[in-house]
Design goal:
By secondary structure, the chain is an alpha+beta fold. It has 1 helix and 10 strands, in the order H-E-E-E-E-E-E-E-E-E-E.
Length: about 130
């Protein structure tokens, strides 16, 4: 009889634990990153840029790599370099002017036709120094 009561207690505890886990909210994983190599490039050379981003909470996303040129306090506007619908974007960008070139990844959530994009998250920019 004691063994049956222990089993009933264990089964009851497992049932309560599984019900608690099922009632807890699901957390979506979201991540974004950007890399550019080399960190210092000569003018006229190619910079390889790789951006990644994903949000498990959104069914449709678009990742855009953006660039801007200038120097701190005097930056130009961000311009799209490339975009990807699978969360992995790569681009080869020619460094045309001396100064600093910055890149960032922007993840947009969209509808199934990739229209009506809203910003989901933005990476910290990476800087490439362009020298003569």
């Amino acid at each position: 009889m004691k063994l049956g009561m222990k089993r009933l207690g264990v089964v009851g505890a497992l049932g309560v634990a599984s019900a608690t886990l099922a009632a807890s909210p699901a957390l979506a994983k979201s991540d974004i990153s950007i890399q550019a190599t080399p960190h210092t490039a000569r003018a006229g050379r190619v910079v390889k840029v790789h951006g990644q981003g994903d949000d498990d909470g959104e069914q449709y996303t678009m990742l855009v790599i953006k660039e801007r040129f200038g120097k701190p306090g005097h930056w130009g506007h961000w311009h799209a370099v490339t975009r990807s619908f699978n969360g992995d974007a790569r681009a080869n960008v020619k460094a045309t002017h001396m100064g600093e070139l910055q890149f960032r990844s922007v993840l947009y959530s969209t509808d199934k036709h990739h229209q009506h994009a809203t910003t989901d998250r933005i990476s910290m920019p990476v800087t490439v120094h362009v020298v003569r």
